[in-house]
Design brief:
Layout lengths: L5 E3 L23 E8 L2 H12 L7 E6 L5 H12 L13 E4 L8 E5 L7 H5 L11 E5 L12 E8 L6 H8 L15 E8 L1 H4 L3 H4 L1
Parallel strand pairs: 3-6, 3-7, 5-6
Antiparallel strand pairs: 1-2, 2-8, 4-5, 7-8
Helix pairs in contact: 1-2
Keywords: ATP-binding, Cytoplasm, Magnesium, Metal-binding, Nucleotide-binding, Transferase, tRNA processing
GO cellular component, one term: cytoplasm
Main location: cytoplasm
């Protein structure tokens, strides 16, 4: 397992690969913390998710941002493993959202693909999920600009592909139902992952120690 990662402070307002920018803090000036890690393989991305799961609790919102095949579903698979939920975590592309009940009396994991959601919060509420969002951990792929109004406290995860890296993660994502359609590449598929804890909920968490 590729557990070790290189940590370094995230550059402020730096444009990431794929055209994404590091997530902005809340407009009302709430607290935030930010850390960046380098993840060398798909297994390392899954392992990062397992470790982050130890921080999550009911009511948390996790927003995943990254280009096609970046590793969003792979990270979510690790979150589900770390939380001890039921069912294989795959891309929810065709159903928009999947609910994974806990096998350990913990909160359920609600995995949402917001790629086709245009109305944000209103459409989230119309999904008629058989679970209470405030009692769940909600992980949203492609949620930037759509679901921030769910809560002022959130963990934003920006995944960017290192230029020149092979497509091992992209291939794994494609096999899980991701839209990338990329063929599996070499195992050495380096990603840069920026974690931003926004709001009071994350002010007391030590993200750097957790990853």
């Amino acid at each position: 397992m590729e557990a070790p990662h290189d940590q370094h402070p995230a550059p402020a307002a730096q444009t990431e690969a794929g055209g994404h920018r590091a997530p902005e803090g809340p407009a009302h000036g709430g607290r935030r913390q930010e850390v960046t890690v380098t993840v060398p393989t798909a297994e390392g991305m899954r392992a990062l998710g397992v470790r982050l799961a130890g921080l999550l609790r009911a009511g948390d919102l996790v927003m995943l941002t990254g280009e096609l095949g970046a590793g969003k579903t792979t990270l979510t698979r690790g979150l589900g493993e770390g939380m001890g939920v039921r069912g294989a975590v795959t891309s929810p592309t065709f159903v928009i959202a999947r609910v994974h009940p806990s096998l350990t009396d913990g909160p359920p994991l609600v995995h949402v693909d917001a790629y086709r959601l245009g109305g944000g919060l209103e459409e989230m509420e119309d999904l008629d999920l058989d679970v209470s969002l405030p009692e769940s951990v909600v992980v949203v792929e492609w949620g930037e600009g759509k679901v921030e109004e769910l809560t002022e406290d959130r963990l934003q995860v920006l995944i960017s592909r290192t230029i020149g890296a092979e497509s091992g993660l992209a291939g794994e994502e494609a096999g899980a139902g991701d839209r990338s359609g990329a063929a599996a590449g070499e195992a050495g598929d380096v990603r840069t992952v920026t974690l931003v804890g926004v709001g009071e909920r994350w002010a007391g968490e030590n993200l750097a120690a957790s990853v």
